[in-house]
Amino acid sequence: MAWRGGYIEEMHQELLAKLNDLITKLNSMLSQFDVSLSTRASETTLSGVSSKLTQPTQLKSAKVTIDNSGGSSDLVQPLFSSSTPSKYAVIKRDESDTGDIYVGDPTSQEFPFKAGDSFETMVSDLSIIYVKVPAGVTANIYVLYEV
Amino acid sequence: MPSRRPLLGAIGKHVVFCDGIDDYGRLPFSLSGSFTVISMFKCHGNALHGYEQYIAFEHDSGGADWNIGLTNEGTYFRFAIWDTTGTFRAITYGKLKYGTYYVGAGVYDEENLELRGYINGSLFNTYSLPNPMHDVANTLNIGNNYGGGRGFYGEIAYVLAYEEVLSDSDIQKVTKALKNWEQNIPVTDGLILGLTPYSLDCENGIWNDISGNNNNATLYGARCLWI
Q1: Alpha helices in B79-199 (DSSP H)
Q2: Closest chain A CA to residue B70
């Protein structure tokens, strides 16, 4: 009986050691898990990413005419007058237009946009696109965009 | 049948009708620093000249500072300034309908270097300016541009100017009053020009300023329309 009691005691100690080891490892994993929680993307961010990846459901078109034919200086204005959400857009200049215009942001419009040219963009709001139309030029711009 | 038109424009309200050819009004006038301009207008259609139609245009021989008007055959409202580099910077709103009165407003905020545009009290766009407005002009034309061209084709009921930035709520208050053809302007702080349907001297062709600053416009060709 004494031998059996010693064996059980020995097993008990061994189990306790393994349990302690397991608790240490679990604590370590928990601390790493906390870090992961603090750095993982929020639901909002994930929702935003999901929205970006969602296939567009609408195809829209617009024609924008900017007439500076009678102007005495460069005319700079937004392509759209108010927020115009888009996932993907193709912007094309009328082939019959004459004179170059330029595309950029409010402070700088350096990208030349010639008659018949087109470009594509994935900006989320088309109203952030600004167009510089030199004096004497009228620009007819077609926009096909997905929402 | 006797006409219902009252004598001398003393009764009722009148608007200024411009034919889009050679009708306009003019007064010595200059806005410096931040300002707000508001007008109620009705475009009758594309003018014969086919270009933009100006409602109010500040200019002189040294250059031009700002204007409000219509583009795209009279279907887009535009508020614009020239900046210190000579670049014309504009915000537009479309589409408007012919034969409908609209209240259009433009705010030039020099402190924050921003243009803001409103139609019927709703903000339609803001524009962050890289440079302030160049400020050289001291003449205001009502109904056409500096050279007497690009005339407005339609009716102008009110032209108001403030020497300050009006808040969204103030612009909405003024817009509501204008749409209701009210005689009293609800926001008068900073009002430097007040041309209203009740201040037209039709007999003498003078559009009197109610702001108390004696900024009266003389009409050339433009005539009173009793409504």
Answers
A1: 168-179
A2: A67
Which tokens is B89 given?
């910077």
E-assigned strand segments in A87-136:
88-93, 101-104, 109-113, 118-121, 130-133
Task: Test B90 with A77 for CB contact under 8 angstroms.
Answer: yes
Closest Cβ opposite residue A78 in set B51, B88, B91: B91
Map tokens 């007040």 to a residue: B194
Q: Strand A75-78 to strand B88-94: parallel, antiparallel, or no bridges (unpaired)?
A: parallel
**ipTM higher than threshold 0.90:** no
Q: Is the pLDDT of residue B8 over 50?
A: no
Q: Are B106 and B117 in contact (CB under 8 A)?
A: yes
pLDDT of residue A102: 98
Q: Which CATH architecture has domain B17-105+113-226?
A: Sandwich (2.60)
Contacts of A35 (CB under 8 A, 6+ apart): none
The residue of chain B with its CA nearest to that of A74 is: B87
Partners of A75 in the β-ladder: A133, B88
Q: Taking the mean position of all CA atoms in its chain, how far away is CA B74?
A: 14
> Tokens representing A44?
């909002």
Query: Shortest CB distance from B51 goes to which of A69, A72, A73?
Result: A69
**Smallest Cβ distance to B88: which of A74, A107, A127?**
A74
CA dihedral (B221, B64, A132, B124) positive or negative: negative
The alpha carbon of residue A32 and the mean position of all alpha carbons in its chain are separated, in whole angstroms, by: 29
Q: Which amino acid is at A55?
A: Q
Contact check, Cβ <8 Å, B92/A74: no
Contact A81 B124 (CB under 8 A): yes
| Residue type for position A68 | N
What pLDDT is attached to residue A41? 63
Count of A-B CB contacts under 8 Å = 58
pTM of the model: 0.84
Q: Which residues of B touch A72 (CB under 8 A)?
A: 64, 88
Neighbours of B33 (CB within 10 A): 14
**Torsion region of B46: left, alpha or beta (phi above 0 gives left; psi -120 to 50 gives alpha):** beta
Check B89 against A76: CB less than 8 A apart. Answer: yes
